[in-house]
Amino acid sequence: MAGWDDDDWVGTPPEGRYTRDRAKPEFWWHQRPVSFVGAALVVALIVVAIVALLS
């Protein structure tokens, strides 16, 4: 293992990392409806497949 750990940085964050004041957790809160729509679509496809197999 390397003797230098990237997680122990202090000062200016390395590229690709965001400080707590720049983070936007509400962005992730708004992603939940997308998952509900995806789940509804999967259920609808299963129902259509069952109906097609039974007929």
Protein architecture, described:
Helix content is 51%, strand content 0%. By secondary structure, it is mainly alpha-helical. The longest helix is centred in the C-terminal third of the chain and has 23 residues. The chain is built from 2 helices and no strands. The mean pLDDT is 78.
Task: Describe, in short, the structure shown.
This protein has 55 residues and is mainly α. It is 51% helix and 0% strand. The protein has a domain at 27-55.
Distance between the termini: 61 Å
Low-confidence stretches: none
The gyration radius over C-alpha positions equals 22 Å
Largest sheet: none
Report the principal-axis shape. elongated
Kindly report the average pLDDT value.
78
- Helical content (DSSP H or I, runs of 4+): 40-55%
Could you give the order of the helices and strands? HH
How many helix segments? 2
* Protein structure class: mainly alpha
| Number of strand elements | 0
- Proportion of strand residues: under 5%
List the defining traits of the structure above.
0% strand, 55 residues, mainly alpha, 51% helix
Secondary structure blueprint with pairings:
Elements lengths: L24 H5 L2 H23 L1
